[in-house]
């Protein structure tokens, strides 16, 4: 059982931000804009904001003044989010930001009061079923739309193919679903779990694929992703270690030569209560 609190490195978030921006489903942002009342400013709460990449992507796609409330339990990431604020809005309206140190596990509906939109990105797979169930109830209690992007779904395609790919992928998925002192993490099951939980409570849920497509232009991200992917697989299945060394070397050589293409599956959810 893992007892660590999962901390996310700011370098990793910076490296993935452009690929995240390319991957998120634009039509869900458009649906959000079409459905939002004209006039009045938006109050957007971003849960597990990290360094604030969601706001930097979404704020310029939405019209009208926006106030973003950025929540994270990691004070170092929050400090970065506060200085690299998003905006301006699509029509040039101002975007303001407030950073709040929040543990989602103890967040209350009153912490989200006044929200006109709730967002999260690359968060759901880090939660347990109980934590996600609670978050679903909390968000629906506010009554505004909820945009949840970039939850991993356990699909990885690597070109050229290698006979170890499937074994490493299975060990990685098992690592994502590992037991922690908070319970078992949902990992690749989180998007389906969330969609079902929202629908059970009567909400409409739109689901879109939002894969990373990493080619030669993303070779640094592909190499970093691959290193983390294999590392997690080896932690889960230590007996993989011997076979993994030459495999990892081969793959990293391919990445630096621009010969590695990776598609990492994600799902985006727009929830309309
Ligand atoms: C993979 S990062 C994604 C960050 C950002 N949303 C993005 O897309 O770049 C997940 C973030 O969720 C935060 N997080 C995870 N569990 C949390 C919790 N229980 N309370 C508050 N923040 C949490 C982490 O600190 C981290 O910043």
Structural class label: alpha/beta
Radius of gyration, in angstroms, nearest whole number: 19 Å
The chain-level mean pLDDT equals: 94
Q: Give the count of structural domains.
A: 1
Order of helices and strands: HHEHEHEEHEHEEHEEHHE
Helix content: 40-55%
What would CATH call the class? Alpha Beta
The proportion of strand residues reads 15-25%
Architecture (CATH level 2) name: 3-Layer(aba) Sandwich
Quick one: biggest sheet? 8 strands, mixed
What is CATH's topology name?
Rossmann fold
**CA distance, first residue to last residue:** 36 Å
Shape: globular
Low-confidence stretches: none
Tally of alpha and pi helices: 9
Would you kindly provide a written description of the structure presented here, covering whatever features stand out?
This protein has nine helices and ten strands. With 273 residues, the chain is of the alpha/beta class. The protein has a single domain, classed as 3-Layer(aba) Sandwich (Rossmann fold), CATH 3.40.50.150. The strands form two sheets. Strands 1, 2, 3, 4, 5, 8, 9 and 10 form an eight-stranded mixed β-sheet that branches. Helix 6 packs across helix 8 and helix 8 runs antiparallel to helix 9. The chain is globular, with a radius of gyration of 19 Å. The two termini are 36 Å apart. The mean pLDDT is 94. The structure holds S-adenosylmethionine. S-adenosylmethionine binds next to helix 1 and helix 3.
């Amino acid at each position: 059982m893992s007892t660590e609190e999962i901390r996310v490195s700011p370098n990793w978030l910076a490296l993935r931000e452009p690929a995240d921006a390319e991957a998120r489903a634009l039509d869900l942002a458009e649906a959000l804009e079409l459905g939002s009342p004209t006039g009045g400013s938006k109050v957007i709460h971003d849960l597990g904001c990290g360094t604030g990449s969601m706001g930097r992507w979404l704020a310029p796609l939405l019209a009208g003044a926006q106030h973003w409330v950025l929540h994270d339990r990691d004070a170092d990431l929050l400090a970065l989010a506060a200085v690299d604020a998003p905006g301006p809005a699509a029509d040039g309206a101002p975007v303001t930001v407030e950073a709040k140190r929040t543990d989602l596990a103890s967040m209350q509906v009153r912490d989200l009061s006044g929200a006109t939109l709730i967002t999260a990105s690359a968060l759901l797979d880090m939660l347990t079923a109980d934590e996600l169930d609670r978050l679903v109830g909390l968000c629906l209690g506010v009554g505004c739309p909820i945009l949840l992007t970039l939850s991993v779904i356990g699909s990885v395609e690597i070109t050229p193919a290698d006979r170890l790919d499937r074994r490493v992928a299975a060990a990685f998925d098992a690592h994502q679903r590992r037991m922690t002192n908070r319970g078992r993490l949902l990992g690749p099951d989180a998007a389906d779990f969330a969609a079902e939980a929202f629908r059970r409570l009567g909400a409409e849920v739109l689901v879109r694929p939002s894969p990373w497509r990493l080619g030669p232009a993303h070779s640094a991200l592909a190499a970093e992703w691959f290193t983390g992917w294999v590392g997690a697989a080896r932690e889960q299945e230590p007996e993989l270690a011997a076979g993994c060394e030459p495999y990892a070397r081969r793959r990293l050589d391919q990445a630096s030569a621009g010969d590695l293409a990776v598609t990492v599956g994600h799902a985006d959810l727009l929830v309309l209560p």
